[in-house]
Amino acid sequence: MQNNYFSSCYPYRATVTLGNMTTLPSSLDNMTILYFYTMELSLHATNVLVAGMRDALVHIDKVTGAIEILAGEPAEWGYVEGVGREARFALITGIAQLEHEYILSDSNNHCLRSVNYLSKETQAFAGLCEAEGTADGSLVSARFMSPHGLMRDPSNHNAIYLVDDKVLRKIDLSAETVITLPGSHLSVFSDGITMNPAGGILVTSEHGVMQYTLNETVQWLTGKTTQGTACDECDIALAKFFRPVGLRFITPEVLLVADRYNHKLRLVNLTSRRVTAIGAGEGRQDGPYQDSKLHIPQSIAVDNSFIYIGEDAAQGGGVRKLAYTGMSDSSLTQVCLTARLHRYV
To answer: Side-chain half-sphere of 47: how many Cα atoms within 13 Å?
Structure first.
């Protein structure tokens, strides 16, 4: 059996300590009609996040919160190839990065698009835009139903994975082909995607997190198809979620999940098998993390020092910045993390 993902193991443990939340102003008008559905660290610009702000691709300065629109126009749906703000998208739900371009899941146009980082030119990358389907094949002949999430394999840069309707698909950049991963039927609508450092792929699905394992099967990691209120702390088998979206590992054994309509972040410790909630519920309240409030957290990006959380901006949400420090222990007892929350835009 050929594995379509990387596999590696990390003998660490982890604890998390959180601090305070603060707010930085936005440089973009009309924030009330925007939200950060997907967000990554930009590999092309220093101190910059790249985000899908619904129908526009933007850069966000990680220090000042300043926003630059690279392609598309916020809140203007459509399908147009062009340069910069001439282009039109219909819900950007995933971002992967190549040497000179960003690859985007253009969900409601049923295709993948590319935006050149230097020229800001937008082009079709895979599938036929505005024509839905499920066919595998070349980048030109393949069809997509509703692509969500994109993740470039950190151990194999020729592979990009995505969620498409209720299956997982792989783009082979060297062969320029699209395939459906065997045994990857997810049974329910799925959204975010990340690679598991211990092997396999994790996706947010319905009201939980599912895992595509090394033996090419799908099973629930935590949560399931029934929505529920976020527990402050509970066993991984008992935790409930309400339409989670973004997910990223902050250590090799600790997964962070954006629990969208519970308005919280969830720490999933794969070693202790415990799930812990972060935040006091819906709102825009700053202060100590236990008293702070989030508004529809949707996307997560992580660098060596910070975790970035993109919110729905309909009621003033934006990008929050969670600082942390990590230290590995050769005795395999723990990784100690210290965190402080901030907010962008």
So the answer is: 6
Tokens 């211990």 locate to 198
Contact residues for 304 (Cβ-Cβ < 8 A; gap 6+) = none
Tell me the C-alpha to C-alpha distance, in Å, between residue 259 and each of 90, 190, 195, 217. Answer: 24, 14, 18, 24
Q: In the numeric block, which tokens belong to residue 50?
A: 């790249």
Q: pTM of whole model > 0.85?
A: yes
pLDDT score at 69: 92
Q: For 175-191, what is each residue's pLDDT tens digit?
A: 999 999 999 999 888 88
Per-residue pLDDT tens digits for 107-163: 999 999 999 999 999 999 999 999 999 999 999 999 999 999 999 998 899 999 999
Alpha carbon distance, N-terminus to C-terminus of the chain: 47
CA 33, 35, 41: angle at the middle one, nearest 5? 145
Residue 326 CB: number of other CB atoms within 10 A? Answer: 16
The answer to whether the beta carbons of residues 295 and 316 sit under 8 Å apart is yes
Q: Are 57 and 72 in contact (CB under 8 A)?
A: yes
Widest Cα–Cα separation across the chain: 56
Q: How far apart are CA 93 and CA 60, in angstroms?
A: 17
